[in-house]
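Ticket #4471: complex job returned nothing on first submit. Input attached below:
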Amino acid sequence: MPADAPHLDARIADRLGLAPYLLVVDTEDMTFEAVPGPPRTGGPGAGIQIVTQALGMGARVLLTGYISPYIARTLEKNGIEVITSVSGSARDAVENYRLGAFNRVDGEGEEAAGPPSSVHRAPWQDALRKAANQFLGILPILLGVILLVGLFQAFLPKDGLLIVFSGNRIFDTLWGACAGSVLAGNPLNSYVIGETLLELGVGLFGVTALMMAWVTVGLIQLPAEIAALGMRFAIGRNVAAFVITLLASPFIVWLSGRAW
Amino acid sequence: MGVAVAYLILWVMAPDRSSHALRAAGHILLQASLPLLLAFFMMFMLNLFVTPAHVTRFMGGKAGARGILLSSVAGIVSMGPVYAWYPFLASLKEKGASDFYLVNFLSNRAVKPALIPLMITYFGWRFSLVFALFGVFSALLAATVVRFLNRISSRKTSHA
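Support reply: We reran it on our side without changes. The output follows.
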């Protein structure tokens, strides 16, 4: 929020680019940081620099009096909620936001500056449009993942798994986790494959690792997960799940009292 | 595009298997269509009724035990292939959900109450119970690891 002083009782400034301070508030506990506002001689891009800095600090919502409609649209396209015509103290503005008192376009129920279509569209239309955009953005990758799963199901023979299991518990756990990471589909299939492998003499360590990795690690789905949730999230989660599978499988077998 | 090229190449080399792959993919798409529709509907409802403040309260960085319970239960009861849920999770993340609870949700999908009877048939009740419990515990562990990695990454960024 642009503000005229570096504390929560400050008044919300009318214009982002002219505010002496930018308050970045954690809505959970009302802790905040006051960032110096853009210099008056900073030019049109100065306000954007400050907003970028606030976004880097984790801000996801902008409450302000007025903002250029072009900048508001750009921010919203990047997932930042923009609420305008906000006035009063910063503290009251945050409280009102937490209570859901603001609608998306305007802070006080009046028409805000911006193209008419964004003002006169019903909330459900906005929600549907946003959901459709989010969905269509990831749909091509989802279809690619589904086609890839089909390829694996057709070209990777399930009985080929027997080749990788040697009887060594450590390596069987590792190869079981690797196989489970690559295979995808209904977890029920992993139970059927696991039971079949047990009947064919494969140890429970490898079978457990296969079943656990099947549902927690997804190499084939990785592109879709990266597209949706980010590379750091997707790779971090999958690597963590793979390592945990390797460590947990022996414990599961041991605690279940089954023959190894 | 890469997958399409792979299909074209494999179609030339092994048309029967490629046809089988396409049929399998079609079958998977059919199975995933209902969960995908459900996920789309949930995204619509999320955008219509749930504000970032709500998401932050229940699945934000400081949601605590409430967030753990909500994301664990949601992951356990969620049905369908995992990729059907990615768009919905992306929406939640956009609205401020912490990576910790998103990872917890995804990892708790390993626990399938509906399939436990079948698992007991194959592997016995004790193994099935331990497997399910470890599923929940491992989900929290994975979430903790991702949170730890995020913190290291944030510290590196702020020092830079």
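The first helix of chain A runs from residue 45 to 56. Closing as resolved unless it happens again.
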